[in-house]
Amino acid sequence: MKKLFDHVDENEKSSVEFQTVWRKAHRRDWKRRLSQSAGPNLAVLMILLILTPLAGYYFINPEHPSDSAQSSANQNEKVYDLSGKVYNFPNQIVIKGETGLPEGAILTIEHLERDGQTLIRKEEVSTTSTGYFQYTTDRLEKDKEYIVKVILYPHLQNESIKNQIGERGENLKKRKNVFWYQRGEVEYFGMKMVGIVNKIEDTTEYVSSEFLRSEKEFSDINQIVQ
User: Fold this and answer.
1) Rg of the Cα trace of the chain?
2) Are the beta carbons of 99 and 78 closer than 8 angstroms?
3) Which of 1, 68, 93, 99 has the fewest CB atoms within 10 Å of its CB?
4) Each residue of 155-187: pLDDT tens digit?
């Protein structure tokens, strides 16, 4: 029996020694593998720490620098327009219209005789925050027709407006209502629309209206030599 226990003890001792050696060997191997993988894992962790805040920022603020650049490009390509109608009341002339111009843009209104040359009065109005404008004046005679012109002169605008349309109006698109003029030796590009004030032949209270048109279109329709 004693020999049996001695044999078991010897086997257990051998087994324990074997397990101890095996564990030490594998512990060294595990440490070596951990050491080898620590470098790449640390690099991945650092990348995640850097990218996570950036990803959160762009998720909350989706507008990228490229979007801002595109927005700036679109601003430069913005089309500024000028349109409206002339309303003929028995005792008043009203011009209402809209533009693609910023708030505070100055529009010059010229009220002329039917020949389109003789100036009766000249006034200025400003665009609203939505780009609209309105002008009202008294009708001189009911049985006469008149010509009205709505003109944008770049040289009359403040710096804020010039920053958008250009110092000399160079950002205004080459549309049919854009015209060229000169002050001194400086060339400018402005916008001009023309309308007719119809005569009222009787005392009937009614309102008629006419569209503002480009000078060429107005001349073709109304046979006025500009």
Assistant:
1) 42
2) no
3) 1
4) 999 999 999 999 999 998 777 799 999 999 999
